[in-house]
Amino acid sequence: MAVMALDHTRDFFGTSGFNPRDVMEPALFLTRWLTHLCAPTFILLAGLSAFLYGRERSVQELSRFLLIRGSWLILIDLTLIKFVWSFDVDLYRLSVGVIFVIGASMVALAALIWLPRWAIAGVAFIMLGGHNLLDGVRAEQLGEGSWAWHVLHEPGLVPLGDGANLYVLYPLMPWIGVMAVGYLLGPVMQLDGAARQRVLFRLGAAVTLGFIVLRATNLYGDPAPWIAQETWLSTLLSFLNCEKYPPSLLYLMMTLGPALMLLACFEHARGAIARLLATFGQVPFFYYVVHIYLIHALAVATGFAVTGTFTRTPAIGLSLPGVYVVWFLALVLLYPICRWFAVLKESGRGWWWSYL
User: Fold this and answer.
1) Is the peptide bond before 246 cis (omega within 30 degrees of 0)?
2) Which of these, 137, 132, 108, lies nearest to 46 by C-alpha position?
3) Running DSSP on this structure, what letter comes out for residue 222?
């Protein structure tokens, strides 16, 4: 949660002319690369949470919850979250972001959980391992069906009619597979502590090693091969420079492997920093909405203070150290707000609290 705020702080406060995937800018690249862990981990853990939530419920109850929860997230992404990114209420220009894809993946999982576990595993394997075989197919080749390809596999603009458009940044196919894998991972979390940590760490290490071997071959798994650069560091960054939109097989292996190992290592994390970060994690949906509002508002206020002109999306252009300073300030401001809401949510008794 905290690392995600770093990426969004860079979006609003960083120098827009710089490419965060430029292998010749190591500090900027590694800042962006670190934040790559966020979306895959969120979606994996959402699937895992679905399994844990459904342990004492029927398949029908869990499916209904996922369907309603997913539809709710889709609605929120197209309205409340759409507004916060731009401070613009223009509903003719919509976009599909990470909250939308979490919601849509939940809707898909609501159907998948009726299948045997082996069938869910097969669907996940095909989606994650095979979707890069489709990289050569372009939406424009499909005529009137191009909109479906944008939704499933290729980022792009989908006309909705009457001048309205939907920009799909997160195609669904690989992300549904990630959530399904998280759901399948659920029984591991029911093992005793030592066994659970051992399985998670070994599984994460195996996925990470698989990434290294497959990426080294340049045979499959990402649309862009790595290329030897002038320096060893730039070559290493080229090796790590995998595609997120849509997430390639190698991108997901590169992020989920370390995420599983971190999940094992952090289980016994204690102390003040752990408690602070856990507070953010207790209210993830609330945190997501509030942190973008806060960072965007800080950017607008900073732009007005510097230029004397109000603009919804100011071009501030802070250096990378300046971005880190604003990020830390944002976390400090977010903590008491999230702590307040966590206490409020814990004391809430209404069924609707589970959707916030």
Assistant:
1) yes
2) 108
3) S
Contact predicate 251/242, CB 8 Å: yes
At CA 140, angle to CA 137 and CA 144, rounded to 5? 115
Tell me the C-alpha distance between 94 and 83, whole Å.
10
Which residues on neighbouring strands pair with residue 99, listed in sequence order? Answer: none
Q: Both 238 and 299 in a single domain?
A: no
Q: How far is CA 218 from the centre of its chain?
A: 25
Q: Decide if 280 is inside a domain.
A: yes
Q: Report pLDDT digits (tens) over 239-264.
A: 999 999 999 999 999 999 999 999 99
27 in any annotated domain = no
Q: Using one digit for the tens of pLDDT, what is the confidence trace for 256-313?
A: 999 999 999 998 888 999 999 999 999 999 999 999 999 999 999 999 998 888 888 8
Assessment of whether the complete model's pTM goes beyond 0.90 = yes
Q: Which residue has the tokens 């903590």?
A: 335
Boundary-marking domain end, from 268, 289, 323: 268
Contacts of 77 (CB under 8 A, 6+ apart): 96, 97, 99, 100, 103
Where is 147: in which H helix or E strand? helix 146-152
Beta pairing partners, 166: 94, 158
Domain that includes residue 233, residue range: 36-268
Number of other residues whose CB lies within 10 A of the CB of residue 4: 21
Distance separating alpha carbons of residues 304 and 311, to the nearest angstrom: 7
